[in-house]
Design a protein that fits this description.
This protein is α+β, with helices and mostly antiparallel strands. The protein contains ten helices and 17 strands. The protein has a six-stranded mixed sheet with strand order 6-7-8-5-4-17, with helices on one face.
Length: 507
């Protein structure tokens, strides 16, 4: 394995004319730029893991900040020991992507660029930079003593003492000068504050709940997941259950609500364009999907029957419940031991149709010719080709385009107006084979309004050049434009079979 011993200092580029000290959200913006610079540097150097030096005091500071900002529940778990790198959405090779394009030699040197639970079949992205915090169990004085003994110097950031710069600096000042209530400092464990113990207990409780939710998620039966339009048909457990029921009724109710919300979120993440969905936002969704679970608050709203909610949206995902056809019964034969699946219903999850009142998601693809030299002096030569960088469209599809044309193109949603316009042009040109292929692909892979959530590659004149997820090319002249497309990184239930997944063919 190659040894890396080169030190490199990265600088943060603030927008021109910006005075960082005057920004009301300076700490947030500095964090975003810092992670983006680190993430890009890691990908450029083909480094999959980034080690950070957070310690126990950092976690206590974070907890005090979150308490002051009204965080509860999941937000009080403290700092995660490992996670995907944050604040880098849409950065290819940094955020949940890039593993498929690494050379075999790098994969061999650094090991797999993906976790074992990521779905890494062709047509899906995987990888991305992960961060680890190996010093979380150590206090700052312990680390400083270790560095002194080893003769290793360190740097103190002078901005950390500016009390006007950030709330964290104020909290750090209070901690360092023992100005916080004594109860927060004293504990029965050495080198552990009361807050850090509280955080550890909350984290352990959440891990137990997550394990139970993961067990139920693995038991879910995927009927079909079609990445061409991004819809999922799935059977879910009858009721979220825990390993034990030693808690009181009230505690057990909280357990069930959390487990249900956690399971729903895992399913939504397969389809949603969002990078994060809060558990608090899924209260109605989890009650609707697990309508057979007793609701202790049902008496407060007697006119609302959860079982009557068969269609709803959550996290930009349209969820629809349907009954299993009587002539197509399903069994629990392949379900996880001890978990019964709902034998009567199937849930379909698809991208929520776009709100016509809001701007549609679109990505402009830069002019390829502006960044390459011409071949033989002819700018229209087929040898003059370049491709765009990978573009994340609508948080779901990574698309890369090779276009030798002199004009820009754009990636937009396939909507009814574009659909009807393409049908008219096909009729005018009598492209009946294309018409038949388009009709079959849409009916099979994109039922109903799901078809209007797929990407379309649009030319400068507004014409549809391709429907990349369906593999439909609508160019009338010899094919000039080429594209590669992959679905975002996803985690599917462990029981999923390859024949239940319809993958993208390009990429």
């Amino acid at each position: 394995m190659q040894a890396f011993n080169t030190t490199k200092i990265l600088t943060l580029e603030w927008p021109s004319g910006t005075d960082p000290s005057r920004l009301p959200n300076f700490e947030t913006e500095a964090r975003r730029l810092r992670y983006q610079a680190l993430g890009q540097a890691c990908f450029n150097a083909q480094i999959p893991s980034l080690l950070l030096g957070h310690h126990k005091e950092d976690e206590t500071e974070t907890l005090l900040m979150r308490l002051s900002e009204g965080y509860r529940g999941e937000g009080l778990r403290g700092i995660a020991a490992e996670a995907g790198i944050p604040d880098c959405p849409g950065m290819y090779g940094v955020s949940d992507s890039g593993g498929r394009d690494l050379p075999d030699s790098v994969q061999k040197d650094v090991g797999p660029w993906f976790s074992s639970d990521e779905y890494s079949k062709p047509g899906f992205e995987y990888g991305g930079v992960k961060i680890y915090r190996p010093l979380m169990n150590y206090t700052k004085p312990t680390l400083m003593t270790t560095l002194r003994a080893a003769g290793v110097p360190w740097v103190n950031d002078p901005t950390n003492s500016d009390l006007k710069l950030s709330k964290r600096n104020v909290i750090r000042h209070l901690m360092q000068h023992n100005l916080l209530p004594q109860a927060l400092h004293n504990s029965k464990e050495p080198d552990a504050s009361t807050l850090s113990i509280v955080s550890r207990n909350i984290r352990q409780k959440f891990l137990q709940r997550n394990d139970q939710a993961d067990r139920l998620f693995q038991a879910c039966k995927v009927i079909v997941f079609d990445a061409k339009s991004g819809y999922l048909d799935v059977r879910i457990p009858l009721v979220p259950t825990a390993e034990s029921q030693d808690e009181t009724d009230a505690e057990w109710t909280v357990e069930k609500e959390f487990i249900a919300a956690r399971l729903v979120r895992q399913l939504l993440y397969i389809v949603t364009p969002r990078a994060h969905i809060s558990l608090q936002s899924l209260e109605l969704a989890s009650k609707a999907m697990f309508f057979n679970v007793e609701d202790p608050y049902a008496a407060l709203s007697p006119n609302i029957r959860k079982e009557s909610i068969t269609v709803f949206t959550a996290g930009d995902v349209l969820c629809r419940r349907s009954r299993v056809p009587e002539d197509r019964p399903v069994s629990n034969r392949n379900s996880t031991e001890g978990v019964r699946l709902d034998p009567d219903h199937i849930w379909r999850l698809s991208r929520q149709p776009y709100d016509a009142r809001l701007p549609e998601p679109k990505r402009d693809v830069p002019d390829a010719q502006s960044s390459i030299a011409t071949a033989h002096g002819d700018p229209n030569s087929m040898a003059v080709r370049s491709h765009s960088s990978w573009q994340l469209w609508d948080g779901r599809y990574w698309i890369r385009i090779l276009d030798p044309s002199p004009s820009n193109i754009r990636i937009c949603p396939w909507n009814m107006e574009r659909h009807n316009g393409l049908k008219r042009r096909i009729e005018e040109r009598r492209q009946y084979r294309l018409k038949k292929s388009l009709s079959r692909a849409v009916q099979f892979h994109a039922p109903g309004r799901t078809r209007y959530t797929m990407p379309a590659i649009i030319g400068a004149d507004g014409d549809v050049l391709a429907l990349p997820t369906l593999g439909i090319d609508t160019q009338w002249e010899p094919q000039l434009l080429k594209y590669w497309i992959r679905y975002k990184k996803v985690i599917l239930p462990g029981s999923v079979t390859d024949d239940a997944v319809v993958a993208l063919q390009s990429g």
